[in-house]
Structure formats: structure tokens, C-alpha cells
User: Which sequence fits this backbone?
């Protein structure tokens, strides 16, 4: 009897506990308390190119923000509070990251802030972090980051007022700040820039092309015995004409002249150093072949040219890379022209160093057969220039660029190099209409986190990695990526990938970017073993403004020319749809559909996957696709014949 | 082993403890029946497999609690009613068929006590059947989460086991509401075949019918835009879905229109439970 009583009591007690817990879980707040700020270096950061970061003085303290999102497991760091505000105001930001639960900003009340000559905030130490919601923000002041005007946060309103009094600007609260339109140059700005950049490059070419038409003052063989003597005798702004023949000489051009070959002209060095070295602005080398340079990859000692060492962070790189032996070396020769030239390269074909505004066109560089023996076909170092209609084969790097902001490479052919085009610390470049075939490593490789590059209309075949852009806010469009191991490697963030045809690769697109901030739309994925593959990081939603991509295999039974439901190239069944018979039947099982129905929700918490919420029914780029053998394999999603249209 | 408090407790009133014991006996008998039933055990195992499987396919073990909730929501909306009906549709009918109802009628037990007792007993079984697979999933998520890339600072965001606990509680409540419907069916019919038929009918109505009715009402303007939140409470499935979304997913996604009126959804589920039990009481008392 008593035993029963006890059991009964126990049952009642257990029941009560369960009831209390059951109610309790709804009463307690699911969210944990505010996290503490973390070291900025530990955040997944954005808003500053590596090149700019390296270039900052030691005492510069740029305003920063770090954000803890409800659905993104990494802390996101922003250089410039305005970078966060702009991202936050973008469509779909909350869908991808959840809402910002806690935001910390640099607190300039905690330091004595000054502005450097460039307008960068400086202080003797890093500002402390303060909660953004209670901070005061000075907008429209003289303060800047390398990306432009910046917002300066203060915990104390009086400090903000004092700052605004001396450096201009007005004071707003966090709420007011989030309501402001903040302009940043994102990927769509890059897209809109492409035509202008082509036009500017045309103008550049037109301007420099006049160098060809300088009057002939000296003819080799008539006015002088050797080419070098002719160069030394020629007045500035005239042409040295080199008649048919092979000239065993090593040349130095230190005045603004044009060296023009007539007929079959070869300048052959003695296997030491650079064959033709030019150090004057507006130098032109036209219509000749160059051979016989030395084969030192790394330079040592002083570089040619009239610049003084400026102690920049990349000084050693510069001496090593741009000081190596080459067919033609242009140093501090701005607005120069190399046209109709072929280089039989021993190590590097052409070096442009601190030669901004130059043009290299109709040039052929043959590198040593083994890429290990070569360096670069064309090497641009601190030389925003135009490279067009060049052919580089068998090199280590076909075209290599270092800190050449605004470089244009177009209509060129790169064949059998290790890397076709290789950009280091080069922002705002335009790589367009190039044919890149059979690079043993990577077709186009953009490294070191630059910003706002445009990579359009290139055709890349047969590489380990076809197109491998890094950095942010770039525009990657209308490229044809075929027969590579990995067609498109996505490391760049905040970038727009559209209209690319990714076909016949082992892996169509491989995503490694940690931030889910890319716009991926209207690309066509056809006949890849795997259309896409994703690494660590949140679910990537490859749909922008309701437009997705064409995935060979995604299908429709509804007859409305839209794919039924979403498509996930990383899901076990979807990824087989285009190459395994029966996968479609399995994909339509209620069990899978029940799960996939909500696939796009809480993307920030899912890892290692890609989903397209609105796949397109037909390929988006039929013309480009027609250049592959698989145009007829890119079938429409429609499985049911459409009735007559109403 | 005899505490002194026991005597006053015993002497307080003779009839209520006796009745309570009767109720308890019925409930305990139901628990035993459920525990002994091989088919229900099999059902429980199947549910466990589905829950664990869905969590695995959706990569929930590595992704966390909230993504798992989202993955599990639709499958459970469909499966929990099936399981609940299986638990209840023969409960009272079985008693009747075996003649136990006739036996019970010789005891001083009212129809209400019988129904509540049967319901309570089966409810314990059902609650355990639903809670255990979800608890297993929760443990798997807790230990199975892949470590974030360590070079970056990470945090758990809005994800939390609390959210999963809410989901578990709501799923059990949802199951209990459908169980009451099953008990009502069981008390209304007189043969196994008709019990099966009526159960299938009830399932179709629950799984599809009510939601479609709301859609129709909305499309035809019978349900006004401002009434939708309350109309949703009338369908157990929608009430459950709304409650889950409101108390878990919305915590992480923040802004946007309200997805449910929690109070009316809870009232809706409660009305379904109480109403169904009342029907059962009436039917048994016939």
C-alpha cells in the first residue's frame, strides 16, 4: 500500500517535472547572452584589399566592425562601418546571415584619434570595441580608408562632437546610420565598368600607337654600324630603323625613341642579362624578334630606371621579380609601346616595371619547353597597362601582374603554361576575350584578395583549375570553362558570377569562399561529372533576385517551363540527375521532397552545400554553349510537351 | 517502512482514492498493453529510424538544432498523426471486442473515467515513442557537430538545444491531440474494419483536408486576411507547424510577418484534444 503510494508520488513528481520543463523551454530565452568581442584577426573579414592593408602606416587605425549573426557561425569583420551598412542593406543579406545579434565597432573615444595626410585615422594603439547600438557615428568627415570616405564611431557623444568640429561631418545614431544609403563599389559597378574600360584601353592603344609613326632619323647600317650606336645617335621622338638581319647585340634605350624593325629583324643577346632594356617614357619597340637573353630568374642588385627605392612593402619582390633576365625590359618607361614583336624567351619574355599606361600588342612569347625553366611570358610590375593580342606558350606564368591596378589583358592566347594569367595584388583589372588552353595548373588565377576585377568572355580549356578568382567585388561573366578538372573555383566573395558556361569539367564549380555573399546566376552547368562541390562554410544559395542557373538534369513535370522545386548540386540524388538513369524518379519521392521543400531556410547554419532555389529551364547562354560539343545535351527541363500557348 | 503520515492520508476519504485507483489501474493496464504490443514497438523503431535518417540526410548532425528542426518538421507533420492513430484507433474498440468493457461495467467506473484512463495510458506510450527518437537526434546533434574552421572565431548564433526542446514538446503535444481523435474513433465504431476505415478517413482529413479547406477559404474570401492566423489554429497540422515556426525558426530569422498566433494555436490543439475525448465519453456511455 505504502509502496504504491510512493510510486504514485514518484509518478506525480516526474509528471510535474516534465510539465515544468516543457513550459520552461518556452519561457527561457533561447538566445545566449551577448558574446564578447573577438580579435579582429580571427574574424572572417571583408572590405580591405590585402595590397591596401600592407600599404598602411603602422599607426593607422581604420574603423572596423565585428558582427555576430544569428545564423552564421563565424564572426564577420568589416573594415569600415560603412562596409557593414552597405552589406546589411543589400537584398538577401538577412536571408544568408540571419539578423545581426551583436555588433561591435571601433571606439575612437578610447584613443586620441588624428587623421593622417591621406585622411586615415591614426592613434597610438587600436581603439577598444564598443556596442554599436549605443555608439555615436560621425559621417561625412574628412576621415577615409583606402576604399574611400569612412564613418568614425565614438562611445561618447562629446568626443564625436569634438571630432566633427575639427574634421567636419555630422553625428548620427546607429539606427539612423542603418537607414542611410551607403554607396560602395560592388560587383555590379564592375559590370557596368567593363565597356568603359574597353574604351579607355582603346584610347590608350590609339595614343601610344602614334609612337610608330615618328620620323626616321637613323638607319642601322647607313647612319650607324650597330643598333646601339644608332640608338645613341638618334634624337628624341624619332625612329631608329633596323633593316632585315640578325643583330648580335644587347641594347639599352634611355631616351624616348622608337626602335622599329623592317623586314625580318632579330636582335640576339649574348645569353647574359636582358636583351633590350628601356628606361625612358614613351619608348617604342616595334616589328622585331628578340632572342638570347640570360636565364637568371631572380634579379639581384640595382634595377634599371630612374626611380629611387621607396621602402614599400614589396621592394624585395620588385628587385627579385622584375630584375630577372628578359627579352625586353621596360623600367620606368611610362606610356611605352611594344608591338609586333616576338620573343624567344630563355626565362621571361617582357618585363614592364613602373611603366604605367604602356601597351603590349601583337606579341608572341615562346618560353622554354619545360615550364620549370621559364618565369613569365609578360611580367607587369606596378604597370597598369594594356596587353592585347599576345600569344604566350610554355611558360611558368603566361602573364604575371603585381600591383598593376587597372591592368587590361584581352584578345590574347595562352597555351601550355603553368598559369595562364596570374594576378597578384592587382585590383580593377579587366581580363577579357582571352583564349586559355591547356595550362597545367590554372587558366586564370587571381590571388591575394584584390577588389573589383572583371573577368569576362574568356575561354578556358584543359586546366587543373580553369578560373580561380580570389578577392572581392569582382565580376566574372560570360566565360566558357570546358574540360578542366575544376571549371570555376569560387574563392572571391561579394562577387557576381553570371552567364558562364561550365561544361565537361570533372567538377563544374568548386566553392571555398567562407562568406555567402556571391551572386551566382544564369550560368549553365552541362556535362560536368559533378556540377558543383562546396567546402566548409554556410549553405550557398545560388539564386539572385529570383533567377538561378541552368543545371543539366533539373527537370519539370508541370509544363510551365520552370524547374520543379530547388536543385542542389551537392545533394546525393540531385547531383546524379544528369548522368544516372532513375535518379529523377528517386528525386521525386515524397520523402526527399518533404525534406527539400524547406532546404533554403536557415542557410547560414548548414555547411558544405549549394542550393539553387529557382533553376532555369533552358540554358541561358546558347551561343556560348554552341562552342562546346554538348549543346544538344543541354536539354530543356520540360518533360511534358507543351500544349498550344493560350 | 510505514511512515506515520500514511494513516491520515488513507482515512481522508474512501471513495475518491478508490476511484483514483481505478483510473490508475486502467491507465497502468494501457501502458502495459502498449509496452507489450510488438507492432507498436516496431512502429516506434520505425519512427526512430525516420527521425535519425532525415536528420542525417539533411546533414543536421553537423549543421545544428535549428536546421534539423526545419528538416524534420514536414516529415513529422505526416508521420506523427499516423503513429498517434495507430496508438489509439483500437484502444477502446479492443476492450469492447474482448468483452472487457462489459467486465469494466461491473465496476463502479464511469465512461469518463474509462476514456481518460485509456487516453492517459496510451498518451504516456505515445509521448515516449515521440520523445525518444527526438532525444536521440538531439544527443547526436550535440556530439556530432563538426568543428568550425579553427582559424576563425566562431559562435553558436541563435542555435540552441532549447529550440530543439521546444520542438520536442510541441511535437508531443501535437501527437497527443491526434491521439485523442483516435480514441474518439475507437469509441465510435464497433468493428476493426470500420475502425481502420474511419482512421484512414481521419488521417486524410487531418493531413490534407483541413489545410486545403483553409486554402479554399482564403482563396474564396471566406477566411479574411486578418483571420488567417486564427483559421490556422483550427487545423491541427497548421497549428503545430505555426507553433514550431514561431517558437524556433523565427527566433533565428528575425523580421517578417508573424507566422502563427501561439495562443490560438495552443487553444486549437487543446480543443481538438478535449473535444475528441468528449466525443469518446459520449460514445462509450451510449
Assistant:
Amino acid at each position: 500500500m505504502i509502496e504504491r503510494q510512493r510510486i504514485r508520488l514518484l509518478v506525480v513528481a516526474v509528471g510535474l517535472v516534465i510539465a515544468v520543463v516543457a513550459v520552461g523551454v518556452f519561457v527561457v530565452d533561447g538566445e545566449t547572452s551577448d558574446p564578447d568581442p573577438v580579435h579582429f584577426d580571427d574574424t572572417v573579414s571583408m572590405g580591405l584589399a590585402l595590397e591596401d592593408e600592407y600599404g598602411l602606416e603602422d599607426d593607422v587605425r581604420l574603423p572596423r566592425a565585428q558582427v555576430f549573426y544569428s545564423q552564421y557561425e563565424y564572426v564577420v569583420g568589416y573594415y569600415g562601418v560603412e562596409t557593414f551598412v552597405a552589406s546589411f542593406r543589400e537584398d538577401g543579406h538577412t536571408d544568408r546571415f540571419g539578423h545581426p545579434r551583436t555588433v561591435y565597432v571601433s571606439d575612437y573615444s578610447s584613443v586620441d584619434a588624428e587623421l593622417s595626410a591621406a585622411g586615415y585615422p591614426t592613434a597610438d594603439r587600436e581603439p577598444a570595441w564598443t556596442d554599436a547600438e549605443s555608439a555615436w557615428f560621425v559621417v561625412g568627415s574628412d576621415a577615409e580608408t583606402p576604399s574611400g570616405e569612412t564613418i568614425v564611431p565614438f562611445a561618447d557623444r562629446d568626443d564625436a562632437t569634438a571630432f566633427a568640429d575639427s574634421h567636419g561631418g555630422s553625428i548620427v545614431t546607429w539606427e539612423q546610420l542603418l537607414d542611410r544609403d551607403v554607396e560602395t563599389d560592388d560587383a555590379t559597378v564592375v559590370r557596368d565598368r567593363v565597356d568603359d574600360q574597353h574604351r579607355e584601353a582603346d584610347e590608350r592603344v590609339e595614343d601610344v600607337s602614334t609612337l610608330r609613326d615618328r620620323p626616321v632619323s637613323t638607319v642601322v647600317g647607313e647612319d650607324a654600324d650597330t643598333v646601339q650606336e644608332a640608338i645613341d645617335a638618334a634624337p628624341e621622338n624619332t625612329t631608329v630603323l633596323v633593316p632585315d638581319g640578325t643583330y648580335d647585340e644587347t641594347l639599352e634605350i634611355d631616351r624616348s625613341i622608337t626602335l622599329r624593325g623592317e623586314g625580318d629583324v632579330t636582335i640576339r643577346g649574348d645569353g647574359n642579362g636582358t636583351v633590350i632594356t628601356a628606361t625612358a617614357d614613351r619608348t617604342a619597340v616595334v616589328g622585331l624578334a628578340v632572342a638570347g637573353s640570360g636565364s637568371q630568374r631572380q634579379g639581384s642588385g640595382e634595377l634599371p630606371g630612374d626611380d629611387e627605392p621607396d621602402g614599400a612593402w614589396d621592394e624585395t619582390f620588385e628587385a627579385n621579380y622584375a630584375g630577372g633576365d628578359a627579352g625586353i625590359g621596360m623600367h620606368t618607361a611610362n606610356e611605352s609601346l611594344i608591338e609586333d614583336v616576338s620573343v624567344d624567351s630563355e626565362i621571361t619574355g617582357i618585363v614592364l616595371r613602373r611603366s604605367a599606361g604602356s601597351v603590349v600588342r601583337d606579341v608572341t612569347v615562346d618560353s622554354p619547353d619545360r615550364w620549370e625553366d621559364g618565369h613569365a611570358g609578360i611580367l607587369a610590375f606596378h604597370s597598369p597597362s594594356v596587353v592585347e593580342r599576345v600569344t604566350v606558350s610554355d611558360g611558368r606564368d603566361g602573364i604575371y601582374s603585381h600591383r598593376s591596378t587597372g591592368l587590361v589583358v584581352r584578345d590574347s592566347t595562352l597555351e601550355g603554361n603553368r598559369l595562364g594569367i596570374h594576378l597578384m595584388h592587382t585590383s580593377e583589372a579587366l581580363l577579357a576575350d582571352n583564349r586559355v588552353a591547356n595550362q597545367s595548373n590554372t587558366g586564370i588565377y587571381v590571388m591575394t584578395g584584390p577588389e573589383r576585377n572583371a573577368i569576362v568572355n574568356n575561354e578556358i580549356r584543359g586546366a587543373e583549375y580553369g578560373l580561380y578568382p580570389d578577392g572581392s567585388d569582382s565580376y566574372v561573366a560570360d566565360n566558357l570553362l570546358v574540360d578542366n578538372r575544376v571549371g570555376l573555383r569560387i574563392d572571391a566573395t561579394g562577387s557576381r558570377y553570371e552567364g558562364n558556361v561550365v561544361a565537361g569539367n570533372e567538377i563544374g564549380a568548386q566553392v571555398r569562399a567562407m562568406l555567402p555573399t556571391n551572386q551566382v546566376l544564369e550560368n549553365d552547368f552541362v556535362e560536368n561529372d559533378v556540377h558543383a562541390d562546396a567546402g566548409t562554410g554556410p549553405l550557398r544559395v545560388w539564386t539572385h533576385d529570383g533567377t538561378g542557373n541552368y543545371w543539366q538534369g533539373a527537370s519539370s513535370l508541370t509544363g510551365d517551363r520552370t524547374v520543379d522545386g530547388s536543385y542542389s548540386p551537392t545533394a546525393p540524388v540531385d547531383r546524379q540527375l544528369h548522368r544516372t538513369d532513375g535518379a529523377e524518379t528517386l528525386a521525386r519521392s515524397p520523402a526527399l521532397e518533404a525534406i527539400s521543400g524547406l532546404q533554403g531556410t536557415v542557410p547560414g547554419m548548414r555547411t558544405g552545400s549549394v542550393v539553387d532555389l529557382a533553376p532555369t529551364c533552358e540554358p541561358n547562354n546558347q551561343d556560348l554553349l554552341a562552342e562546346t560539343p554538348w549543346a544538344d545535351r543541354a536539354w530543356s527541363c520540360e518533360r511534358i510537351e507543351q500544349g498550344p500557348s493560350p | 517502512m510505514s511512515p506515520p503520515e500514511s494513516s491520515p492520508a488513507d482515512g481522508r476519504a474512501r471513495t475518491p482514492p478508490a476511484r483514483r485507483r481505478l483510473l490508475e489501474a486502467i491507465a497502468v493496464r494501457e501502458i502495459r498493453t502498449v509496452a507489450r504490443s510488438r507492432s507498436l514497438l516496431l512502429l516506434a523503431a520505425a519512427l526512430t529510424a525516420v527521425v535519425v535518417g532525415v536528420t542525417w540526410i539533411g546533414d543536421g548532425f553537423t549543421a545544428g538544432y535549428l536546421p534539423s528542426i526545419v528538416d524534420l518538421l514536414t516529415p513529422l507533420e505526416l508521420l506523427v498523426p499516423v503513429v498517434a492513430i495507430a496508438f489509439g484507433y483500437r484502444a477502446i474498440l479492443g476492450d469492447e471486442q474482448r468483452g472487457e468493457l462489459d467486465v469494466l461495467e461491473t465496476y463502479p467506473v464511469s465512461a469518463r473515467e474509462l476514456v481518460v484512463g485509456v487516453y492517459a495510458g496510451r498518451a504516456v506510450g505515445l509521448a515516449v515513442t515521440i520523445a525518444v527518437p527526438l532525444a536521440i537526434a538531439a544527443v547526436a546533434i550535440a556530439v556530432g557537430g563538426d568543428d568550425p574552421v579553427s582559424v576563425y572565431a566562431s559562435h553558436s548564433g541563435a542555435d540552441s538545444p532549447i529550440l530543439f526542446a521546444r520542438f520536442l514538446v510541441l511535437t508531443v503535444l501535437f501527437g497527443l491531440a491526434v491521439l485523442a481523435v483516435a480514441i474518439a474513433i475507437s469509441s465510435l465504431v464497433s468493428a476493426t474494419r470500420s475502425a481502420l476505415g474511419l482512421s484512414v478517413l481521419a488521417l486524410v482529413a487531418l493531413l490534407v483536408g483541413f489545410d486545403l479547406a483553409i486554402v479554399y477559404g482564403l482563396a474564396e474570401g471566406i477566411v479574411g486576411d486578418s483571420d488567417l492566423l486564427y483559421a490556422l489554429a483550427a487545423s491541427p497540422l497548421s497549428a503545430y507547424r505555426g507553433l514550431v515556426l514561431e517558437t524556433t525558426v523565427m527566433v533565428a530569422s528575425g523580421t517578417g510577418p508573424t507566422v502563427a498566433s501561439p495562443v490560438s494555436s495552443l487553444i486549437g490543439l487543446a480543443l481538438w484534444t478535449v473535444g475528441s475525448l468528449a466525443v469518446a465519453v459520449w460514445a462509450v456511455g451510449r
Observations:
- The two ends of chain B are 46 Å apart (CA to CA).
- DSSP finds 13 helices and no strands in chain B.
